[in-house]
Amino acid sequence: MLRLHLPDVRTAPLSAEVAAGGGLPLQPAPGADEIRAAVWIDLAFPLPHERQAVEDALGISLPDKADMMEIEASSRVYREAGAHVMNVLMVVGVDSHEPAAVPVSLILMPDRLITVRYSDPSAFRTLDQSCTRVPAGANSRSLLYRLIENVVDRTADILERMGNEIDSLSGQVFGRDQPKTLRLSTDDLQTILRRIGTTQFVLNKVHDSLVTLARATNFLQVGTTETDGNGKSQLSRIDKVGREQLKSVARDVASLSENCSYLTSHTGFLLDAALGRISIEQNAIVKIFSVAAVIFLPPTLVASVYGMNFVHMPELEWVGGYPMALGLMVLSAVLPYLWFKSKGWL
Length: 346
Fold this sequence. Notes:
By secondary structure, this protein is an alpha+beta fold. 57% of the residues lie in helices and 14% in strands. Its main location: membrane.
């Protein structure tokens, strides 16, 4: 789908839309003049002819899906034909319990913003909805800053959610919300491990996303300078207006990265604690069987002695031999139990 936003995004949020699938007939791509007049060109799940129409109209090569997945720094951010190309990762699917970090290309040109994506991050929906509240004449850089802010806000919400999940897991692992005598079942322990694994997976994706966002903001701060007549580098007029906003976004990204690192380390601590809890539960079960075996071993020995079929066993002829054997068996079981109890092993 190809969407074009006119420069006056307040009065004309959407100028053209090309969609395929769902039984809708395929519409022709907008003309070159329409594309060049847009301030934001959003290529969501672009079809080949849509990509080609934008490339022909603007004279720029758009990154394909393979290029967007490159991990080299030189492939993540670079300049091409006067445009700043930034390939970032955005976290999606947390609400649907299918988290993933999807690549998105942000291409900033002097007079327009191009986005290429093969997913539907909520940051784009938020920006699309807020276009009607943006003042008339909004430029491409202000739209990019707003989009990055939406991504940062969404990332902060995810980290807050993961923090609450970690607090809940901590209460279960350390038994703060449970009676001291209550033991966790095998299903409970397996559920805890799955939740810890899911939390760690989401935090890893958030970390990857924040790394790419930090690289993109640094690239914008360094790459949006120009040289005056004396050869000195200075911020352009547009950057002077938005530099505080960009610095604020960069500070937010750095703060979220620190928070993500803290939550990641806390998750690792919880994993170690959960494994320790599993060991304690296993040791408790083994201890019960061990104590039971030790307690019943002496009575078994007494019963085995008097169960032997020898002719000359004087105790077999005693009138009180049977009560004596039973008493000896009970006494040999009670004494070890009391001794274990006095040692605090039970």
